[in-house]
Amino acid sequence: MIERKLGKATRDAYGAALVEIGKTNRAVVVLDADLSKSTKTAEFGKVFPDRFFNVGIQEANLVGVAAGLAACGKIPFISSFACFLMCKGFDQLRMAVAFSEQNVKVVVSHGGISIGEDGASQMSIEDIALACSLPGFCVMVPADEYATTALIHESVQHQGPVFVRTGRPKAPLVYNPTSKFQIGKGALLREGKHVTLVANGLLVFEALQAAEALEKEGIKAGVVDLHTVKPLDEELLLREAKKTNHVVVAEEHQIWGGLGSAVARFLSAHHPCRMEFVAIQDTYAESGTAEGLFEKYGLTASHIAQAAKKALGKI
Amino acid sequence: MTVLGHSMKKPSLEELKAQAKQIRRDIIEMTGTAGSGHPGGSLSATELATALYFAIMRHDPQNPKWTDRDRFILSKGHASPLLYSILAEAGYFDRNMLLTFRELGSPLQGHPDMRRLAGVEASTGSLGQGLSIGIGHALARRLDQKAYYTYVLLSDGETNEGQTWEAAAMAAHHEVDHLIAILDYNKFQLDDATHEICDMEPVTDKWKAFNWDVQEIDGHDFESIIKAVQHAQKIKDQPAMIVAHTIKGKGVSFMENNNHFHGVAPTKEEMKRALEELA
């Protein structure tokens, strides 16, 4: 049985990765909007104060300043909460970063509803849709600390804008320190026969648990981690969908415009099959524990297992 | 390397005036031929941009990405006819291209697109963004210990945007120098006079309160512009603002202070009359 072993929060992995990268890459600069203790960029600021800029509580300017630094050859990483950076800095991401094709790395924390007690105003359920709508952006939602560390390192090598969503709570481990990651290449974590569970972020572990539960009922469910929503790993998706002909997509995001939309758009054109979607159903969440919120808003392993059975016509 | 500015012989006042006149002619011809564009706010800032590009800035039209170049960011992106006329006059591209302004496939987009035209430092057109981008260039200068200056041309209406004031506060707090903002204070915005829509007065006091070095000048007087920029270059650990009082539509009698020409191009007949005045 898959063991639920908590690793670091993905935001902690981001903070640590930045410090490592900063040691060897002098072009990397980091900017935050007065949330550096929460996004974990403060660690970089302590080690490299000259290359760290806390702009204050101003997300629009944060993005613009980063675009100017990128135009001069720097590799800026900019961070804030997902909801604030994406919503308040969106026109700047559009004009100064995406349209201008600037090499800015947007790494947000507090994605999704698993932030818990702070409530809906601090939760981001729209960020993936917003990021994916920007031409040229790579959009990633890593599942655990190892995925985060690797994808942040990959982001430095990638020429062009990237968006990475990290989360507040400690994330259950899915990978190990030797796992390999590539932007745009998903991972098949479990072979399936009857149904494929596609997920990212914290929902990857939930999907693995769902697959175990389904196995007890004689349903062989495959699990695919699509940590990169854009560009989509079409090859992997097509291969697995052809194997099982039933697909469930699970994500900690508003049902409109996230991973589910991306997967459905692709499969509807290339391999139409029965699909179900586990996501936040066009509503805002509320204060509570992360576990309580996942239960109430339908994001747990049992919700994924139910969706799989529905896709298979078993309920 | 052809480096304009410091290493070149300083142009005389008469030469600058002649260049400004040529640039105004180009603005009229580009917008008149295209049948659209923003002549009013291009004409108001003509002396400001002419002084920067031909008497002040170190830049190289043959090497637009020269890392030591001074930067000019047109935050008021709708004044693209001004920027294109200046870049053509400086030799960044063949001036025959000017009349392709706003045509499908032309590098001379309605608003500046840095991907399509060498010499354009920032893609603008969504107001309020240029100052932030300028801060980024100025911080990179500090990190790389270079000597260049970053100039940002703002419109008065544009400073309605909250991002302007985020940038103003942050640049002062971070003691960003080698950053020189110039406000093209022509007292009009799209819908009407600035005092009718969203008056930003007291403008000079606002920038002073944000802890900027502030000067107020006649934005059509070359000697005042050059003197003010030379002062701003000497300011250490503080950003500099030059509030330049200008006249919208300056140089063409029937366009001056006539806000119809904010975003409306002259007709063929108006273009002919304007070019006669600028002969």
What are the defining features of this structure?
heterodimer, A: 315 residues, Rossmann fold, five-stranded mixed beta sheet, B: 279 residues, alpha/beta, five-stranded parallel beta sheet
Structural summary, described in words:
The complex is a heterodimer of chains A (315) and B (279). Chain A has 315 residues and is an alpha/beta fold. Chain A folds into two domains: 7-172, Rossmann fold (3-Layer(aba) Sandwich), CATH 3.40.50; 187-311, 3-Layer(aba) Sandwich (Rossmann fold). Helix content of chain A is 41%, strand content 20%. In chain A, helix 4 runs parallel beside helix 6, helix 9 (203-216) crosses helix 13 and helix 10 packs across helix 11. Chain B has one domain: Rossmann fold (3-Layer(aba) Sandwich), CATH 3.40.50.970. Chain B contains ten helices and five strands. Chain B has helices at residues 13-34, 40-44, 46-56, 80-90, 130-144, 162-173, 194-197, 203-209, 222-234, 268-277, and strands at residues 71-74, 150-155, 179-185, 213-218, 240-245. Chain B has a five-stranded parallel sheet with strand order 1-2-3-5-4, sandwiched between helices. In chain B, helix 1 packs across helix 3 (46-56), helix 1 (13-34) packs across helix 4 (80-90) and helix 3 (46-56) crosses helix 9 (222-234). Classes of the chains: A alpha/beta (315), B alpha/beta (279). Chain A binds chain B through residues 29, 50-51, 53, 55-56, 58, 60-61, 63-74, 76, 91-92, 94-96, 99-101, and chain B through 67, 113-115, 121-126, 128-129, 131-141, 143-144, 162-163, 166-167, 169-170, 173-174.
